[in-house]
Design goal:
Keywords: Disulfide bond, Membrane, Oxidoreductase, Redox-active center, Signal, Transmembrane, Transmembrane helix. Helix 5 packs antiparallel against helix 6 and helix 5 crosses helix 8. Strands 1-5-4-2-3 form a 5-stranded mixed β-sheet. Helix content is about 55%, strand content about 15%. The protein is α+β, with helices and mostly antiparallel strands. The chain has one domain: Glutaredoxin (3-Layer(aba) Sandwich), CATH 3.40.30.10. A hairpin with a 2-residue loop joins strand 4 and strand 5. The protein is globular, with a radius of gyration of 18 Å.
Amino acid sequence: MKRYYFAIIPIVITIVAVYYMATPHENKSNDLTPQMIMQNGSPILGDPNAKVTIVEFGDYQCTYCHLFHENTKDALLQQYVDTGKANFVFRDFPLNGPDSVLAAEAAYCAGDQDKYWQYHDELYKNWAGEKTGWVTQKSLDKFATTVGLDLDKFDKCMYSNKYEQKVLDNQKFGENIGIDGTPSFIIFSGKDITKVVGAQPISVFQQVINKFSNS
């Protein structure tokens, strides 16, 4: 009987963990404001005055961030951002080390030429795994050329490490508010905040956003 008891404990823990990952978690704390969650991130996609804001904490090398980008992001933008119901912000959480920091810096350098989101998408389009060496200055230059950046300006920005601290500050902020994996999403409307963890299907986001939209 004891052997059976100890054997079932890991199974129960796994079930609980999976349930937590797949279930939105509400938080009505007054400690966080929309400004705090959005500041220091990407340019805002959509109407800045939309009722709902979606903030993704992500890593350009992260497998599940790539899956979200490939499988869910477009539908999310089409249904909610393009229709004015929500806006979207990306904040960096470079779990996979220096290469992830470098990729995030590159996106902000592209942003200096008003092409943050084009570069962001190009990074995920060329995703080649976690810590496999695909993020290099040479590959980042190639992506810059693909999206039509002035390469001299881009390289000057990169070599100056202009955005390194911004990226690291984003990760520190995420850690301070309980982000511990990627992708993680903070979805909020006013003071009502819900956290969604993982590369969830569109139905999970619909559940949260529709509730906020109808409240």
